[in-house]
Protein: Dynamin family protein
Amino acid sequence: MSTENLLEQARALLIRTMTFYRDDPRTSTWLRGRVERLDQPLRIAVSGRVKAGKSTLINALVGEELAPTDAEERTQVNTFYQYGPEPKILVHTPHGAVQNVPVSTLDAGTIRDLQHWRPDEVVRLVIEAPSPGLQAISLIETPGLASSAVQETGRSALAQVLSEADAVLYLTRHPHQTDLQFLQSVHELQIARSAPINTIVAFSRADEVGSGGPEALQSAERIAERYRNDPTLRAFAQHVIPVVGLLGQAAATMTDAELTALTGLAQLSEADLDALLLSADRFANSTGPESIPPATRQHLVARFGHFGVERALTLIRAGSGDAKQLRSALLEESGLNALQEAVHQQFVERQQALRARSALLAVDMVLRANPRPGVHQLRGEFERLVANAHEWEELRLLSALDSGQVRFTRPLQAEAKRLLGAFGTDPRNRLGRDENALAVDLAEEATAALSRWREQAVNPLHDRTHREAVRTVVRSCERLVAQRPS
Ligand SMILES: Nc1nc2c(ncn2[C@@H]2O[C@H](COP(=O)(O)OP(=O)(O)OP(=O)(O)O)[C@@H](O)[C@H]2O)c(=O)[nH]1
Ligand SMILES: [Mg+2]
Structure:
Protein backbone atom coordinates (compact mmCIF):
# COMPACT_ATOMS: atom_id res chain seq x y z
CA MET A 1 0.00 0.00 0.00
CA SER A 2 1.35 3.38 -0.93
CA THR A 3 1.63 5.82 1.93
CA GLU A 4 2.91 8.68 -0.17
CA ASN A 5 0.64 11.50 0.74
CA LEU A 6 -2.32 12.48 -1.32
CA LEU A 7 -1.07 15.98 -2.03
CA GLU A 8 2.16 14.74 -3.60
CA GLN A 9 0.25 12.24 -5.73
CA ALA A 10 -2.22 14.92 -6.79
CA ARG A 11 0.62 17.31 -7.60
CA ALA A 12 2.32 14.64 -9.72
CA LEU A 13 -0.90 13.98 -11.62
CA LEU A 14 -1.43 17.70 -12.18
CA ILE A 15 2.07 18.00 -13.61
CA ARG A 16 1.56 14.96 -15.84
CA THR A 17 -1.66 16.48 -17.12
CA MET A 18 0.17 19.74 -17.85
CA THR A 19 2.79 17.82 -19.82
CA PHE A 20 0.09 15.93 -21.70
CA TYR A 21 -1.43 19.24 -22.85
CA ARG A 22 1.88 20.97 -23.55
CA ASP A 23 0.95 21.61 -27.21
CA ASP A 24 -2.14 23.54 -26.04
CA PRO A 25 -0.70 26.76 -24.57
CA ARG A 26 -3.93 27.97 -23.00
CA THR A 27 -4.59 24.79 -21.11
CA SER A 28 -1.01 24.18 -20.08
CA THR A 29 -0.58 27.77 -18.86
CA TRP A 30 -3.77 27.45 -16.84
CA LEU A 31 -2.49 24.20 -15.36
CA ARG A 32 0.90 25.72 -14.58
CA GLY A 33 -0.93 28.37 -12.55
CA ARG A 34 -2.63 25.59 -10.59
CA VAL A 35 0.70 23.87 -9.92
CA GLU A 36 2.23 27.13 -8.67
CA ARG A 37 -0.74 27.75 -6.46
CA LEU A 38 0.00 24.59 -4.49
CA ASP A 39 2.88 26.45 -2.84
CA GLN A 40 1.04 29.72 -2.27
CA PRO A 41 -1.11 30.57 0.77
CA LEU A 42 -4.39 28.71 0.99
CA ARG A 43 -7.23 30.51 -0.79
CA ILE A 44 -10.52 30.93 0.99
CA ALA A 45 -13.52 32.32 -0.88
CA VAL A 46 -15.84 34.49 1.20
CA SER A 47 -19.18 34.08 -0.47
CA GLY A 48 -22.84 34.77 0.16
CA ARG A 49 -25.68 37.09 -0.70
CA VAL A 50 -25.50 40.82 -1.29
CA LYS A 51 -24.76 42.69 1.96
CA ALA A 52 -24.29 39.50 3.96
CA GLY A 53 -21.31 41.19 5.61
CA LYS A 54 -18.55 39.63 3.48
CA SER A 55 -16.23 42.65 3.32
CA THR A 56 -16.66 43.41 7.01
CA LEU A 57 -15.79 39.85 7.93
CA ILE A 58 -12.75 39.89 5.66
CA ASN A 59 -11.50 42.95 7.52
CA ALA A 60 -12.17 41.31 10.86
CA LEU A 61 -10.20 38.22 9.78
CA VAL A 62 -7.30 40.23 8.37
CA GLY A 63 -7.32 42.68 11.29
CA GLU A 64 -7.31 45.73 8.99
CA GLU A 65 -9.85 47.81 7.15
CA LEU A 66 -8.91 46.87 3.62
CA ALA A 67 -12.22 45.88 2.05
CA PRO A 68 -14.71 48.70 1.40
CA THR A 69 -17.82 47.98 3.43
CA ASP A 70 -20.18 50.90 3.08
CA ALA A 71 -20.62 50.72 -0.67
CA GLU A 72 -24.21 51.33 -1.63
CA GLU A 73 -23.92 49.48 -4.85
CA ARG A 74 -22.95 45.93 -4.48
CA THR A 75 -19.50 44.69 -5.29
CA GLN A 76 -19.43 43.29 -8.82
CA VAL A 77 -15.89 42.10 -9.09
CA ASN A 78 -14.05 39.13 -7.60
CA THR A 79 -11.58 40.77 -5.24
CA PHE A 80 -8.53 38.89 -4.01
CA TYR A 81 -6.83 39.99 -0.79
CA GLN A 82 -3.39 38.49 -0.58
CA TYR A 83 -0.05 39.02 1.07
CA GLY A 84 2.60 41.14 -0.61
CA PRO A 85 5.64 42.96 0.79
CA GLU A 86 4.23 46.31 -0.37
CA PRO A 87 0.73 47.66 -1.01
CA LYS A 88 -0.24 46.94 -4.59
CA ILE A 89 -3.39 46.77 -6.71
CA LEU A 90 -3.59 44.68 -9.86
CA VAL A 91 -6.52 44.96 -12.25
CA HIS A 92 -7.26 41.98 -14.49
CA THR A 93 -9.24 42.68 -17.65
CA PRO A 94 -11.36 40.08 -19.49
CA HIS A 95 -8.71 39.79 -22.21
CA GLY A 96 -6.07 38.62 -19.81
CA ALA A 97 -4.21 41.93 -19.46
CA VAL A 98 -3.05 42.90 -15.98
CA GLN A 99 -2.65 46.57 -15.02
CA ASN A 100 -0.75 47.69 -12.00
CA VAL A 101 -2.46 50.65 -10.28
CA PRO A 102 0.30 52.54 -8.49
CA VAL A 103 -0.56 53.09 -4.82
CA SER A 104 1.51 53.95 -1.79
CA THR A 105 -1.18 53.02 0.72
CA LEU A 106 -4.31 50.96 0.34
CA ASP A 107 -7.42 52.93 1.04
CA ALA A 108 -10.91 51.56 0.82
CA GLY A 109 -11.93 54.47 -1.46
CA THR A 110 -9.56 53.49 -4.26
CA ILE A 111 -10.56 49.86 -4.01
CA ARG A 112 -14.23 50.84 -4.01
CA ASP A 113 -13.89 52.83 -7.23
CA LEU A 114 -12.26 49.90 -8.94
CA GLN A 115 -14.90 47.49 -7.64
CA HIS A 116 -17.56 49.47 -9.44
CA TRP A 117 -16.26 48.61 -12.85
CA ARG A 118 -18.48 46.27 -14.79
CA PRO A 119 -17.56 42.58 -15.06
CA ASP A 120 -16.94 43.06 -18.79
CA GLU A 121 -14.34 45.72 -17.93
CA VAL A 122 -12.63 44.20 -14.91
CA VAL A 123 -12.76 40.51 -14.08
CA ARG A 124 -10.60 40.49 -11.02
CA LEU A 125 -8.95 42.83 -8.57
CA VAL A 126 -5.92 41.65 -6.66
CA ILE A 127 -5.10 43.64 -3.55
CA GLU A 128 -1.70 42.91 -2.08
CA ALA A 129 -1.09 44.09 1.46
CA PRO A 130 1.76 43.53 3.91
CA SER A 131 -0.72 42.28 6.52
CA PRO A 132 0.35 39.48 8.86
CA GLY A 133 -3.26 38.23 8.74
CA LEU A 134 -2.75 37.34 5.05
CA GLN A 135 0.41 35.30 5.40
CA ALA A 136 -1.21 31.90 5.85
CA ILE A 137 -4.39 32.48 3.87
CA SER A 138 -5.62 34.61 0.97
CA LEU A 139 -9.23 35.73 0.96
CA ILE A 140 -11.42 36.15 -2.11
CA GLU A 141 -14.59 38.22 -1.92
CA THR A 142 -17.01 37.01 -4.55
CA PRO A 143 -19.74 39.33 -5.83
CA GLY A 144 -22.81 39.08 -3.62
CA LEU A 145 -25.46 36.78 -4.96
CA ALA A 146 -28.77 38.54 -5.51
CA SER A 147 -31.55 36.46 -4.04
CA SER A 148 -32.95 35.48 -7.43
CA ALA A 149 -29.47 34.66 -8.66
CA VAL A 150 -28.81 32.21 -5.87
CA GLN A 151 -30.72 29.64 -7.86
CA GLU A 152 -30.29 30.86 -11.43
CA THR A 153 -26.64 31.67 -11.70
CA GLY A 154 -25.77 29.73 -8.59
CA ARG A 155 -24.12 26.89 -10.37
CA SER A 156 -21.91 28.83 -12.73
CA ALA A 157 -20.95 31.37 -10.09
CA LEU A 158 -20.16 28.51 -7.85
CA ALA A 159 -18.11 26.57 -10.35
CA GLN A 160 -16.09 29.76 -10.67
CA VAL A 161 -15.60 30.12 -6.92
CA LEU A 162 -14.74 26.49 -6.60
CA SER A 163 -12.11 26.56 -9.27
CA GLU A 164 -10.53 29.64 -7.69
CA ALA A 165 -10.55 28.69 -4.04
CA ASP A 166 -9.41 25.85 -1.84
CA ALA A 167 -12.16 26.43 0.69
CA VAL A 168 -15.38 28.40 1.11
CA LEU A 169 -16.59 30.55 3.95
CA TYR A 170 -20.25 31.01 3.19
CA LEU A 171 -22.05 33.88 4.89
CA THR A 172 -25.75 33.86 5.39
CA ARG A 173 -27.97 36.11 7.49
CA HIS A 174 -30.74 33.53 7.62
CA PRO A 175 -29.75 30.03 6.61
CA HIS A 176 -32.90 29.56 4.56
CA GLN A 177 -33.73 27.16 1.83
CA THR A 178 -32.20 28.94 -1.15
CA ASP A 179 -28.87 29.19 0.58
CA LEU A 180 -28.99 25.49 1.31
CA GLN A 181 -29.79 24.76 -2.33
CA PHE A 182 -26.93 26.94 -3.43
CA LEU A 183 -24.53 25.19 -1.12
CA GLN A 184 -25.87 21.85 -2.17
CA SER A 185 -25.14 22.59 -5.80
CA VAL A 186 -21.46 22.96 -4.86
CA HIS A 187 -21.76 19.56 -3.43
CA GLU A 188 -23.02 18.01 -6.63
CA LEU A 189 -19.67 18.16 -8.34
CA GLN A 190 -17.86 14.87 -8.13
CA ILE A 191 -14.89 16.07 -6.11
CA ALA A 192 -17.11 18.02 -3.77
CA ARG A 193 -19.08 14.86 -3.08
CA SER A 194 -15.96 12.86 -2.38
CA ALA A 195 -14.44 15.55 -0.22
CA PRO A 196 -17.08 17.64 1.52
CA ILE A 197 -14.40 19.13 3.67
CA ASN A 198 -14.06 22.68 2.55
CA THR A 199 -17.08 24.66 3.69
CA ILE A 200 -17.74 26.67 6.83
CA VAL A 201 -21.06 28.49 7.17
CA ALA A 202 -21.00 31.75 9.09
CA PHE A 203 -24.35 32.93 10.34
CA SER A 204 -23.52 36.59 9.81
CA ARG A 205 -24.74 39.87 11.32
CA ALA A 206 -25.90 37.78 14.26
CA ASP A 207 -26.44 40.90 16.38
CA GLU A 208 -29.47 41.66 14.23
CA VAL A 209 -31.27 38.41 15.08
CA GLY A 210 -34.67 38.95 16.70
CA SER A 211 -35.02 42.39 18.18
CA GLY A 212 -31.28 42.87 18.13
CA GLY A 213 -30.85 43.21 21.90
CA PRO A 214 -27.99 41.89 24.01
CA GLU A 215 -29.48 38.38 23.74
CA ALA A 216 -29.28 38.35 19.94
CA LEU A 217 -26.18 36.22 19.89
CA GLN A 218 -27.72 33.58 22.14
CA SER A 219 -30.74 33.36 19.82
CA ALA A 220 -28.38 33.14 16.86
CA GLU A 221 -26.51 30.32 18.58
CA ARG A 222 -29.78 28.40 19.05
CA ILE A 223 -30.63 28.81 15.37
CA ALA A 224 -27.11 27.77 14.38
CA GLU A 225 -27.45 24.66 16.53
CA ARG A 226 -30.61 23.74 14.66
CA TYR A 227 -28.81 24.06 11.35
CA ARG A 228 -25.86 22.04 12.58
CA ASN A 229 -28.29 19.19 13.08
CA ASP A 230 -29.87 19.58 9.66
CA PRO A 231 -28.77 16.54 7.67
CA THR A 232 -28.68 18.47 4.34
CA LEU A 233 -26.35 21.10 5.70
CA ARG A 234 -24.30 18.68 7.72
CA ALA A 235 -23.49 16.73 4.59
CA PHE A 236 -21.26 19.50 3.32
CA ALA A 237 -20.62 22.12 6.00
CA GLN A 238 -18.57 21.16 9.00
CA HIS A 239 -19.32 24.25 11.05
CA VAL A 240 -22.18 26.72 11.40
CA ILE A 241 -20.95 29.66 13.44
CA PRO A 242 -22.81 32.83 14.42
CA VAL A 243 -20.63 35.92 13.98
CA VAL A 244 -20.93 39.66 14.42
CA GLY A 245 -18.42 40.71 11.80
CA LEU A 246 -18.95 44.40 12.54
CA LEU A 247 -17.89 43.97 16.16
CA GLY A 248 -15.03 41.69 15.14
CA GLN A 249 -13.77 44.32 12.71
CA ALA A 250 -14.06 47.11 15.30
CA ALA A 251 -12.34 45.07 18.00
CA ALA A 252 -9.51 44.04 15.68
CA THR A 253 -8.87 47.65 14.62
CA MET A 254 -9.89 49.59 17.78
CA THR A 255 -8.14 52.95 18.20
CA ASP A 256 -6.99 54.68 21.40
CA ALA A 257 -9.56 57.42 20.85
CA GLU A 258 -12.33 54.84 20.66
CA LEU A 259 -11.14 53.17 23.84
CA THR A 260 -11.03 56.55 25.61
CA ALA A 261 -14.57 57.39 24.51
CA LEU A 262 -15.88 53.99 25.59
CA THR A 263 -14.12 54.25 28.94
CA GLY A 264 -15.64 57.71 29.47
CA LEU A 265 -19.12 56.38 28.76
CA ALA A 266 -18.61 53.41 31.08
CA GLN A 267 -18.13 55.87 33.94
CA LEU A 268 -21.68 57.20 33.69
CA SER A 269 -24.15 56.11 36.34
CA GLU A 270 -25.97 52.89 35.59
CA ALA A 271 -29.29 54.74 35.20
CA ASP A 272 -27.82 57.24 32.73
CA LEU A 273 -26.15 54.51 30.76
CA ASP A 274 -29.30 52.37 30.60
CA ALA A 275 -31.26 55.37 29.35
CA LEU A 276 -28.62 56.15 26.74
CA LEU A 277 -28.49 52.57 25.49
CA LEU A 278 -32.24 52.22 25.01
CA SER A 279 -31.85 52.50 21.25
CA ALA A 280 -29.09 53.12 18.74
CA ASP A 281 -30.83 56.37 17.82
CA ARG A 282 -30.97 57.61 21.42
CA PHE A 283 -27.34 56.62 21.94
CA ALA A 284 -26.11 58.49 18.89
CA ASN A 285 -28.28 61.60 19.04
CA SER A 286 -29.21 62.50 22.61
CA THR A 287 -27.68 65.78 23.72
CA GLY A 288 -26.03 64.43 26.85
CA PRO A 289 -23.63 63.43 28.19
CA GLU A 290 -21.62 66.42 27.02
CA SER A 291 -18.33 64.75 27.96
CA ILE A 292 -18.83 62.37 25.02
CA PRO A 293 -20.40 64.48 22.24
CA PRO A 294 -22.96 63.06 19.75
CA ALA A 295 -20.40 62.99 16.91
CA THR A 296 -18.21 60.64 18.94
CA ARG A 297 -21.18 58.47 19.86
CA GLN A 298 -22.31 58.34 16.23
CA HIS A 299 -18.85 57.20 15.29
CA LEU A 300 -18.91 54.49 17.97
CA VAL A 301 -22.29 53.09 16.84
CA ALA A 302 -21.19 53.10 13.21
CA ARG A 303 -18.02 51.21 14.05
CA PHE A 304 -19.17 48.80 16.80
CA GLY A 305 -22.92 48.62 16.19
CA HIS A 306 -25.39 49.11 19.01
CA PHE A 307 -24.81 45.56 20.21
CA GLY A 308 -21.04 46.08 20.19
CA VAL A 309 -21.21 49.34 22.14
CA GLU A 310 -23.42 47.70 24.74
CA ARG A 311 -21.07 44.73 25.06
CA ALA A 312 -17.98 46.92 25.25
CA LEU A 313 -19.47 49.08 28.02
CA THR A 314 -20.60 46.03 30.00
CA LEU A 315 -17.12 44.52 29.70
CA ILE A 316 -15.35 47.71 30.75
CA ARG A 317 -17.62 48.04 33.77
CA ALA A 318 -16.86 44.42 34.65
CA GLY A 319 -13.14 45.17 34.66
CA SER A 320 -11.83 44.73 31.07
CA GLY A 321 -10.12 48.09 31.32
CA ASP A 322 -7.12 48.02 29.01
CA ALA A 323 -7.14 47.83 25.24
CA LYS A 324 -5.73 44.32 25.10
CA GLN A 325 -8.24 42.83 27.52
CA LEU A 326 -11.15 44.59 25.90
CA ARG A 327 -10.10 43.60 22.41
CA SER A 328 -9.78 39.95 23.27
CA ALA A 329 -13.09 39.90 25.18
CA LEU A 330 -14.87 41.55 22.22
CA LEU A 331 -13.32 39.16 19.73
CA GLU A 332 -14.66 36.35 21.88
CA GLU A 333 -18.16 37.87 22.09
CA SER A 334 -18.33 38.64 18.38
CA GLY A 335 -17.88 34.96 17.53
CA LEU A 336 -14.73 35.89 15.63
CA ASN A 337 -12.52 33.75 17.85
CA ALA A 338 -14.73 30.75 17.24
CA LEU A 339 -14.65 31.43 13.51
CA GLN A 340 -10.86 31.87 13.46
CA GLU A 341 -10.53 28.64 15.39
CA ALA A 342 -12.75 26.80 12.89
CA VAL A 343 -10.84 28.26 9.93
CA HIS A 344 -7.62 27.16 11.52
CA GLN A 345 -8.76 23.68 12.44
CA GLN A 346 -10.74 22.95 9.32
CA PHE A 347 -8.73 24.78 6.67
CA VAL A 348 -5.22 25.73 7.75
CA GLU A 349 -4.36 22.52 9.60
CA ARG A 350 -5.92 20.46 6.84
CA GLN A 351 -4.47 22.41 3.98
CA GLN A 352 -2.74 19.45 2.41
CA ALA A 353 -6.05 17.65 1.96
CA LEU A 354 -7.65 20.85 0.62
CA ARG A 355 -4.81 21.55 -1.79
CA ALA A 356 -4.96 17.97 -3.06
CA ARG A 357 -8.65 18.51 -3.61
CA SER A 358 -8.00 21.69 -5.63
CA ALA A 359 -5.32 19.97 -7.71
CA LEU A 360 -7.60 17.05 -8.56
CA LEU A 361 -10.46 19.42 -9.30
CA ALA A 362 -8.23 21.19 -11.84
CA VAL A 363 -7.31 17.88 -13.49
CA ASP A 364 -10.97 16.91 -13.62
CA MET A 365 -11.96 20.25 -15.17
CA VAL A 366 -9.31 19.98 -17.90
CA LEU A 367 -10.06 16.37 -18.75
CA ARG A 368 -13.74 17.21 -19.09
CA ALA A 369 -13.27 20.41 -21.05
CA ASN A 370 -10.59 19.11 -23.44
CA PRO A 371 -11.11 15.40 -24.02
CA ARG A 372 -8.67 13.92 -26.52
CA PRO A 373 -7.20 10.50 -27.32
CA GLY A 374 -5.01 9.21 -24.55
CA VAL A 375 -6.69 10.98 -21.64
CA HIS A 376 -8.14 7.72 -20.29
CA GLN A 377 -4.89 6.97 -18.49
CA LEU A 378 -4.97 10.30 -16.70
CA ARG A 379 -8.65 9.84 -15.99
CA GLY A 380 -7.96 6.36 -14.56
CA GLU A 381 -5.27 7.74 -12.28
CA PHE A 382 -7.61 10.56 -11.24
CA GLU A 383 -10.38 8.08 -10.35
CA ARG A 384 -7.95 5.95 -8.39
CA LEU A 385 -6.72 8.89 -6.33
CA VAL A 386 -10.21 10.14 -5.61
CA ALA A 387 -11.35 6.66 -4.56
CA ASN A 388 -8.37 6.14 -2.28
CA ALA A 389 -8.16 9.58 -0.76
CA HIS A 390 -7.91 8.40 2.79
CA GLU A 391 -7.24 11.95 4.06
CA TRP A 392 -10.71 12.96 2.92
CA GLU A 393 -12.25 9.92 4.57
CA GLU A 394 -10.58 10.91 7.81
CA LEU A 395 -12.04 14.39 7.58
CA ARG A 396 -15.50 13.07 6.78
CA LEU A 397 -15.38 10.74 9.74
CA LEU A 398 -14.07 13.45 12.06
CA SER A 399 -16.97 15.70 11.20
CA ALA A 400 -19.41 12.79 11.60
CA LEU A 401 -17.94 12.13 15.05
CA ASP A 402 -18.20 15.82 15.95
CA SER A 403 -21.78 16.12 14.77
CA GLY A 404 -22.85 12.88 16.46
CA GLN A 405 -23.76 11.07 13.23
CA VAL A 406 -21.31 8.39 14.29
CA ARG A 407 -20.59 7.61 17.92
CA PHE A 408 -18.12 5.23 19.49
CA THR A 409 -18.19 4.36 23.16
CA ARG A 410 -16.38 6.81 25.44
CA PRO A 411 -12.69 5.85 25.44
CA LEU A 412 -12.83 4.76 21.80
CA GLN A 413 -14.37 8.03 20.66
CA ALA A 414 -11.45 10.10 21.95
CA GLU A 415 -8.88 7.63 20.65
CA ALA A 416 -10.50 7.52 17.21
CA LYS A 417 -10.38 11.31 16.94
CA ARG A 418 -6.75 11.38 17.94
CA LEU A 419 -5.79 8.60 15.49
CA LEU A 420 -7.69 10.37 12.71
CA GLY A 421 -5.59 13.48 13.29
CA ALA A 422 -8.03 15.76 15.15
CA PHE A 423 -5.22 17.01 17.39
CA GLY A 424 -2.50 17.17 14.74
CA THR A 425 -1.66 14.93 11.82
CA ASP A 426 1.92 14.13 12.79
CA PRO A 427 2.37 10.46 13.90
CA ARG A 428 3.28 11.66 17.39
CA ASN A 429 0.07 13.67 17.70
CA ARG A 430 -1.97 10.82 16.33
CA LEU A 431 -0.41 8.40 18.79
CA GLY A 432 -0.71 10.82 21.71
CA ARG A 433 3.04 11.08 22.32
CA ASP A 434 5.21 14.16 22.77
CA GLU A 435 8.04 15.21 20.50
CA ASN A 436 10.61 13.26 22.58
CA ALA A 437 8.96 9.92 21.94
CA LEU A 438 11.32 7.36 20.44
CA ALA A 439 10.65 5.83 17.04
CA VAL A 440 10.52 2.34 18.56
CA ASP A 441 7.84 3.43 21.07
CA LEU A 442 5.81 5.02 18.32
CA ALA A 443 6.05 1.87 16.22
CA GLU A 444 4.96 -0.23 19.17
CA GLU A 445 2.04 2.05 19.97
CA ALA A 446 0.95 2.10 16.32
CA THR A 447 0.93 -1.71 16.21
CA ALA A 448 -1.03 -1.91 19.46
CA ALA A 449 -3.60 0.63 18.19
CA LEU A 450 -3.93 -1.29 14.94
CA SER A 451 -4.72 -4.57 16.71
CA ARG A 452 -7.19 -2.87 19.08
CA TRP A 453 -9.09 -1.37 16.16
CA ARG A 454 -8.95 -4.56 14.11
CA GLU A 455 -10.77 -6.24 16.99
CA GLN A 456 -13.44 -3.54 16.78
CA ALA A 457 -13.77 -4.22 13.06
CA VAL A 458 -15.11 -7.72 13.72
CA ASN A 459 -17.49 -6.64 16.50
CA PRO A 460 -20.83 -8.12 15.38
CA LEU A 461 -22.78 -5.51 17.33
CA HIS A 462 -21.77 -2.75 14.95
CA ASP A 463 -24.04 -1.60 12.13
CA ARG A 464 -22.77 -0.72 8.67
CA THR A 465 -22.01 2.96 9.38
CA HIS A 466 -20.01 1.87 12.39
CA ARG A 467 -18.13 -0.82 10.51
CA GLU A 468 -17.15 1.69 7.83
CA ALA A 469 -16.04 4.16 10.48
CA VAL A 470 -13.94 1.49 12.18
CA ARG A 471 -12.39 0.58 8.83
CA THR A 472 -11.33 4.20 8.37
CA VAL A 473 -9.62 4.23 11.77
CA VAL A 474 -7.96 0.87 11.01
CA ARG A 475 -6.64 2.33 7.78
CA SER A 476 -5.19 5.32 9.65
CA CYS A 477 -3.48 2.86 12.03
CA GLU A 478 -2.11 0.85 9.11
CA ARG A 479 -0.58 4.01 7.71
CA LEU A 480 1.00 4.80 11.06
CA VAL A 481 2.51 1.32 11.19
CA ALA A 482 3.86 1.67 7.64
CA GLN A 483 5.18 5.19 8.21
CA ARG A 484 8.67 5.89 9.43
CA PRO A 485 8.42 8.72 11.99
CA SER A 486 10.83 11.52 11.16
N1 LIG B 1 -25.16 45.16 12.67
C1 LIG B 1 -24.25 44.63 11.85
N2 LIG B 1 -24.01 45.19 10.66
C2 LIG B 1 -23.09 44.61 9.86
C3 LIG B 1 -22.36 43.45 10.25
N3 LIG B 1 -21.52 43.13 9.25
C4 LIG B 1 -21.71 44.04 8.27
N4 LIG B 1 -22.66 44.94 8.63
C5 LIG B 1 -23.14 46.09 7.84
O1 LIG B 1 -23.79 45.60 6.70
C6 LIG B 1 -23.50 46.41 5.56
C7 LIG B 1 -22.89 45.56 4.47
O2 LIG B 1 -21.67 45.03 4.94
P1 LIG B 1 -20.53 44.55 3.93
O3 LIG B 1 -19.46 43.93 4.75
O4 LIG B 1 -20.16 45.63 3.00
O5 LIG B 1 -21.35 43.42 3.17
P2 LIG B 1 -20.95 42.68 1.80
O6 LIG B 1 -21.52 41.30 1.91
O7 LIG B 1 -19.49 42.78 1.56
O8 LIG B 1 -21.76 43.53 0.74
P3 LIG B 1 -21.60 43.50 -0.89
O9 LIG B 1 -20.18 43.15 -1.19
O10 LIG B 1 -21.95 44.85 -1.31
O11 LIG B 1 -22.57 42.43 -1.32
C8 LIG B 1 -22.56 47.51 6.06
O12 LIG B 1 -23.30 48.63 6.33
C9 LIG B 1 -21.99 46.91 7.33
O13 LIG B 1 -21.62 47.89 8.28
C10 LIG B 1 -22.63 42.91 11.55
O14 LIG B 1 -22.05 41.91 11.99
N5 LIG B 1 -23.58 43.54 12.30
MG1 LIG C 1 -18.47 43.62 -0.12
Observations:
- Residues 54-55, 75, 141 surround magnesium ion (ligand 2) (CB under 6 Å).
- Residues 294-317 form the longest helix (24 residues).
- The radius of gyration is 25 Å.
